[in-house]
């Protein structure tokens, strides 16, 4: 079963442009590591002021988290990216605030039919 995961982080306002540049493009080895972890349909959305919302889908989020937590490639990337964030208590991938899904169109349509 697919799990949809959404999270929030805060990018330091003075580093927003640099943050954007670091993601255009992300290093190929990191992209491959995210995919190998089992994450797909992964997107980041950045609002004015540095509010960052991330979204991805996975079949096993615990396994994806564990894979990336043990990955030296992900550790290097997250070490480089950590200074971009406000109020971070650990590696960005593990310290992000999870958001609770309260509505999904496809699920509700399926139930309604």
Automatic annotation (TrEMBL):
<dbReference type="GO" id="GO:0019301">
    <property type="term" value="P:rhamnose catabolic process"/>
</dbReference>
<dbReference type="GO" id="GO:0016857">
    <property type="term" value="F:racemase and epimerase activity, acting on carbohydrates and derivatives"/>
</dbReference>
<dbReference type="InterPro" id="IPR008000">
    <property type="entry name" value="Rham/fucose_mutarotase"/>
</dbReference>
<dbReference type="InterPro" id="IPR011008">
    <property type="entry name" value="Dimeric_a/b-barrel"/>
</dbReference>
<protein>
    <submittedName>
        <fullName>L-rhamnose mutarotase</fullName>
    </submittedName>
</protein>
<dbReference type="Pfam" id="PF05336">
    <property type="entry name" value="rhaM"/>
</dbReference>
């Amino acid at each position: 079963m697919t799990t949809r995961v959404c999270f929030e982080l805060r990018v330091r306002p003075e580093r927003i442009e640099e943050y954007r540049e670091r993601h255009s493009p992300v290093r190929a080895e990191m992209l491959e590591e995210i995919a190998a972890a089992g994450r797909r349909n992964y997107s980041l959305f950045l609002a004015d002021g540095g509010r960052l919302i991330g979204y991805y889908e996975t079949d096993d989020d615990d396994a994806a988290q564990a894979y990336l937590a043990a990955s030296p490639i992900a550790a290097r990337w997250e070490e480089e990216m950590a200074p971009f964030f406000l109020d971070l208590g650990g590696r960005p991938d593990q310290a992000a605030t999870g958001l609770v899904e309260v509505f999904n169109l496809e699920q509700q349509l399926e139930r309604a039919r």
